[in-house]
Structures are given as structure tokens and as C-alpha cells.
Amino acid sequence: MQWTEVSVKTTSEAVEAVSNILMNYGASGVSIEDAKDFQNLKPGLYGPYGEIIDPKEVPHLSKGAVVSAYYPESRHIDRQAAKISTEVQGLTQFGLQSAPGEVKLTPVADENWKTAWEKYYHPFAVTRYLTVVPSWDDYQPKSALEQIIRLDPGMAFGTGTHPTTQLSLQALEIILRGGESMIDVGTGSGVLSIAAKLMGAGKITAYDVDDVAVASAKKNMTLNPQAAEIPVAVNDLLTGIHEQVDLVVANILAEIIVPLVPQAFENLKPGGLFLMSGIIKDKYELVIQTLQRAHFKITQTMKMADWYAIIAEKPIEGVK
């Protein structure tokens, strides 16, 4: 089968938004090369055989980012290239600078599919105890405390390397104690649900508005036996969902978090937590104000590069 790689040259702040655009056109996978992923890295055990490597010596972008998606020939994505370019350029209306926003199409033969992914995707320690590993890699834990999340990036974005996902995973390590019920909104690759299950969460339900993302999440769940039974379904945020849980998580854009806020409040138990990420600096105050108007209590904020994660609590009735 012939595949087409669609690459969008953009800014670091627009990575998630561009990823969403490409997924909405039926991408079978998204990879991200982001200059900011290298900014805070120090020499360490990054080599495939445990050797110490200086990240500055690894070929990478000096600025900006490139988001690449893969489409089977049956998608005829070449007919959609102009529309994709228009949507990328249109991100400015949401306060995201996407320039240069260049869209490039490159044919990729089926036999080169795995090679194309291996170029971008390697085991990545996202927290002290969590390492995201591509499904084909035989990586083994370095300690008894290290938890492995296996993902197939050939189906959806959310591989754990972007700051928004890293912040979400770090926040989960902070708030999970074990046994919590959880709803994962906009699950993407399912990485947050898988991580939460590895950390001891109880009942988890995952939703995404995109059929491709749901299929991807289900596949990734099966790669991680502890998470294999997590139900994943198509749904528009939490519309029509009425279930009291301990934790709602959402790693999505701020513009989508805003309408989710009252839905999350309704679906949380008193004292429950709402963890959200994907919030660019310019939208931080908007999200904070929306949470406060909905009577959430902000308990913690986290920042990486220009991205924020927020942990908010639904107050316990009768407690001021």
C-alpha cells in the first residue's frame, strides 16, 4: 500500500492544534519534531544501548516544530491539502501563531512505514517512574519502580513527548493515590488512561470525538495488559454523560476545555479533581476565570515551556 506523509512546518505552541487538524482529516498517525523538546535536556542515557549522549549532538530542529501525519492512498489526501493549509493558517483566530504553516506532501511506501516511525519515536522517560515505549521496541525497565507504557504511534498522536502530555502524566503522579474512578476526555492514543491504570486507578472510562482516535486508544490498551479492559467510546466531550467520578482528565486545547468545565463539574463527586492540560500561556487566564465562575477551587498549576496544566477541585458541600 502507498501512504502519503503530510508535514506541517509550524510553531511549538501550535503543535497540538495542528495535530488535531490532521487527525480530523483521518490521519493514521502523527509524529512531532519539536525544538522545545530539546531545550531542557541534559546529557544522559539517551542512546539505544544505554550510552550517554549529549542531546545537543543529536540532529534536531533549532526552532519551531514539524507535525507529520500519514494517510493511506484511499484517503486521497492530496485533494485536501489546500483545506489543511487554510485551517492551519486560521489558527491565529484562536490566539495560536502557526506560521510558517507550510504543508508538504511526500509519498511513503508501505515497506518504509515502520522505518518512518522509528526515525521519530524512541523510548522516552516522561516522569521519574513512567517511560513511554514504541510497540516494536524491546526496551526493558531499568528499575523495579519504572512503569512501561507501550504505544503504537502509527494510529494517533499523544506519544508522551509533548509538554502537554508530560504535564498531564506528572500531575497524575501527584494526585493519584489508588482506586480512584476516572473519566479521560479526548483520550487520543489512550496514554493518560493507561498511565492512570498503571498508577493504581480504579474504574476508568475514556472518550474521544474522533473514530480514529478511539480505534487507536483501544489498540494501545491491548498493548498494556493492565489497561486492556478500559472501555473507550466516541462522544463529544461529556455531553450526555452523567457519572459521578473522583477524577476527570482532559489534555485538549483551552478552547475545548472551556465548554467542558461545567460538564466536568457535574460529573465529579464533591472533592473530586479536574486535571486539564493543553493550555497555552495566552489562554491560561481564560481557563482560570472559567473554572472560578463554575465554583472550582484551583489547587495547583504546572508549567512547561509555554504550556500549563491545572488541577482544580470541586468543593465539598458545606465546607468553605
Automatic annotation (TrEMBL):
It comes from Lentilactobacillus raoultii. S-adenosyl-L-methionine binds at T165, G186, D208, N251. Its main location: cytoplasm. GO terms for molecular function: methyltransferase activity. Its EC number is 2.1.1.-. Keywords: Cytoplasm, Methyltransferase, Ribonucleoprotein, Ribosomal protein, S-adenosyl-L-methionine, Transferase. GO terms for cellular component: ribosome. It holds the Pfam family PrmA. It catalyses: L-lysyl-[protein] + 3 S-adenosyl-L-methionine = N(6),N(6),N(6)-trimethyl-L-lysyl-[protein] + 3 S-adenosyl-L-homocysteine + 3 H(+). GO terms for biological process: methylation. This is Ribosomal protein L11 methyltransferase. Methylates ribosomal protein L11. It is found in: Cytoplasm. SUPFAM superfamilies: S-adenosyl-L-methionine-dependent methyltransferases. Belongs to the methyltransferase superfamily. PrmA family. It is an enzyme of class 2 (transferase).
